[in-house]
Amino acid sequence: MIEYHGTPVAGTRHEGARFLASRHALMPLPRQDDMGIVADVCQSFVFDNGAFSVWKKGGKLDVDGYTAWVEQWHRHPGLDWPLIPDVIDGDESANDPLLEALPRKLRGVPVRHLHESLDRLQRLAVDWPPEAIGSTGQWAHPGTAAWWKRMGSAMDAICDDQGRPACRLHGLRMLEPATFQNLPFASADSTNAAVNGGSISRFGMYVPPTAGQRACVIADRIEAHNSSSIWSGPHSSTFELI
Description:
The structure is a single chain. By secondary structure, the chain is an alpha/beta fold. The chain has one domain: Alpha-Beta Barrel (TIM Barrel). It has eleven helices and eight strands. An eight-stranded parallel beta sheet has the order 4-3-2-1-8-7-6-5. Strand 5, helix 6 and strand 6 form a beta-alpha-beta unit. Helix 1 packs parallel to helix 10 and helix 6 crosses helix 7. The protein is globular and about 50 Å long. The C terminus is likely disordered.
């Protein structure tokens, strides 16, 4: 599984470069601080259109600006794919028209939100693979019992009788080992390392001295795990960790 770490990274730019070297990164449209570093030192990267920030803080998604940004970078060999613009709390009538927001040549990846229908999940897997899954609505918090029930329904719908997904799947904000180890993801992302590298309290009395070092510790712990090769249902230990 590919682990994409959200940017920008806490600490100095030198620490950020050391953290990002040979890793995989997620670049958000609103915060392109690390773009030069990411393009030079990361194994690969993906583009995020900033819809989550718009959803949390308000504002309007800059579809034209995002499309122009992707156009500028889409020939870079390190860019795996850009997320297709989406309305996180929108229904299918709001999100289906946005599938054409990016030209097909840009190889955009659609987002299916957990509050949307299973029919859309299956349709996107056929018409727009690969596919990203985002946590929304009453299932906005990955790892809860309600979230696992909803995610289980999605996996049952998109996987065959041997637990193999119909296309490659990406988990948005799902880079938690207790989560992705139970799911057949090709990749997932989070800002865990980038954000919590600045958190001293997370480490107690044994805190590494710099934000960059703390981010590396968090990322290394995440990358020590892999996703499941098949969907076999959430394990009992999953619920014990909630």
